[in-house]
Write a structure and sequence with these properties.
single chain; about 180 residues; four-stranded mixed β-sheet; 12 strands; globular; disordered N terminus
Length: about 180
Amino acid sequence: MRRAWLGVAVLALAACDSAQSPAPPEPVPVEIDADLVTVRVDGLTAGVEAFYFAAGQTEVEAALARTLGKPGDTGAMPECGAGPMEFASYPGGLTVNFQNGSLVGWNWTGGTAAIVFSEAIGIGTARSEVETIPGFALIEDSTLGEEFALGEGPFGFFEDGKVSMLFAGTQCFFR
């Protein structure tokens, strides 16, 4: 009986060796635009470099400067509810927030094709379109305007029936 099982095992292995396995698929090249910043719920991409929240401030600022140019405004926000923060505002309406030398948030008001959001909406998207996205919720009683959330993020504001700002991560908004 033991020989019978051994014979079956040898035949099974032989069958595996003689079977042709399909060739692995060819890798699909990913186009990366060195002149584009993509803001995401969990961070951002600047050119060919991706940064999650908690990435180092120096690296993020250098990548954004290569992609968008030098920041037009930088500064400190010592009175934030989340604790002291620093910010840098870049051409195209992107402001990034840092705390203790790490990226903690961004907000974007639009103004250039060099910045996009990783999801299906952007600055200027009609409110009626955003309201159909799963997870949409209007933030009731916001003291900052018509504020909305898409699930756990991004968050944003409507103005004149369109998205006027998107943001993710830690912000220094006074409510």
